[in-house]
Amino acid sequence: MIPSDMLIKIGCCGFPVKKAVYAAHLSVVEVQQTFYEPPRVVTARRWRTEMSPEFEFTLKAWQLITHDAKSPTYRRLKTVLSPEERSQAGGFKPTPLVRRAWEATREIAAALNARVILFQCPASFGPSPQNIDNLRRFFQELNRHPFRLAWEPRGSWPPPEVERLCRELHLIPASDPFTNPLVPCPIAYFRLHGRTGYRYAYTKADLLELTNFLTDQKEAYILFNNINMWDDARQFLQIISD
């Protein structure tokens, strides 16, 4: 049973329907565009004014911070990088490019009045000593105020290592609870990618099971990122409202 005092925010990764329709049903959205190429600040400010003050934006940090330039996601990058800049990209490296990418991400987050910035890593970013050192340096040195930062590691990260780093660096562990062990944290940030992939539609039994992962947290973000995200998010909202 979900604790009665838990603050639960349900939404989608991106807008699957028109913003006005979306906001009439759901209270939060995770912006995806910022991962591929941040919009202009004026565009982000317009998005903010189109929604009510109570509506919440979260967003994905720009891929230049987390992903190597060889990543296929760079096909959607509009910014032209020099060979030197490409070598500086990704992996939380202490480089001018990564620092600029963070400032661009932070500027858009401020324009959206976002509360959470998500750093999603590729599976290739594993728990090597160099990667851990870069991760630690990046989060220790950046100016995060007033944002909360979430980290979604993928690949071979042991849960105890994720928990240790999240505690040390004051990060919210983000994950899909159906496929990854839960990491203890007062805030849950669940990204539901589909139990068998993007084309998966969650059943009512799945969504009832999802409530079992919400036990000790004070606050929870439940964000659907599958082909049926719009219907699944509203169905889950109905389940917890009954």
Concise description?
This protein is an alpha/beta fold and 242 residues long. Helices cover 38% and strands 17% of the residues.
Characterise the protein shown here:
The chain has 242 residues and is an alpha/beta fold. It has one domain (7-241): TIM Barrel (Alpha-Beta Barrel). It is built from 10 helices and 8 strands. Strands 1-2-3-4-5-6-7-8 form an 8-stranded parallel β-barrel. α1 links the parallel β1 and β2 (28-31). The longest helix is centred in the middle third of the chain and has 17 residues, at 96-112. The radius of gyration is 17 Å and the shape is globular.
Keywords:
10 helices; TIM Barrel; 38% helix; alpha/beta; 242 residues; 8-stranded parallel barrel
- In round numbers, the mean pLDDT is 96
Please give the order of strands in the largest beta sheet.
Answer: 1-2-3-4-5-6-7-8
Let me know the CATH homologous superfamily.
Protein of unknown function UPF0759
Q: Globular, elongated, flat, extended or rod-shaped: what is the shape?
A: globular
Reading off the top of the CATH hierarchy, the class is best stated as Alpha Beta
Q: How many H/I helical runs?
A: 10
What portion of the residues fall into strands of 2 or more residues?
15-25%
C-alpha-based Rg, rounded: 17 Å
Total domain modules = 1
Largest sheet features: 8 strands, parallel, barrel
